[in-house]
Amino acid sequence: MTQLEALKEIAKRDGGFLRPQAVVNAARPKDSPLHGAFEWNNGKAAEKYRLLQAQYLIRSFRVTVEDNGAKYETPVFVGVSTDRTEGKAENPYRLAEDVAKSADLQAVAENDALEQLRGIKARYEHLKRLGDIWAAIDGHGGVGRS
Questions:
Q1: ∠ at Cα 52 (44, 2), nearest 5°?
Q2: What is the radius of gyration, based on Cα positions, of the chain?
Q3: Is there a contact between 12 and 51 (Cβ–Cβ < 8 Å)?
Q4: Model confidence over 121-145: pLDDT tens digits?
Q5: Long-range contacts, 27-32 (Cβ 8 Å, 24+)
């Protein structure tokens, strides 16, 4: 049985719902196809969880800014793709105000945002009422391109 088949079977047993706790429980046996997807060393797992908590903490801070009379919230810290190291679990964040001050970093952040929007489109493209939004995303070739 593949991991995907195992996940579908778990969902089938729970009325079509796939709950994380059920997945973990099903993965506990060493012969489960899901077992290898998890860190079973509690010390290592705890450290990885603390890193997730740190990422959540960093992303949780927001500041209200005003631009041409409109107020909106924006993150205090942001990650930009040029700072990320392939295969590294811990990628750095920068102060958003520092990114805003650098034309190069701003361009990277804008292209990162477009890539995220394209990912959202790929995930939700089946929602036809959002077609105008998908067209706008498709029509934007990236920063400096239209």
A1: 70
A2: 20
A3: no
A4: 999 989 989 988 888 888 876 554 4
A5: 32/6
- CA angle centred on 99, ends 140 and 101, rounded to 5°: 100
- The neighbouring-strand residues paired with 63 are 74
Q: What is the pTM of this model?
A: 0.72
Render pLDDT for 67-109 as a digit per residue (tens, 0 to 9).
Answer: 899 999 999 999 999 998 776 667 899 999 999 999 999 999 9
70 beta partners:
67
Q: What is the mean pLDDT of residues 2-13?
A: 97
Contact predicate 35/48, CB 8 Å: no
Tokens of 64: 């209200």
Q: Which of 86, 85, 82 is nearest to 104 (CA)?
A: 82
Domain ranges of the chain: 39-139
Quick one: which H or E segment has residue 80?
none
- The CA distance from 68 to 80, in Å, is 26
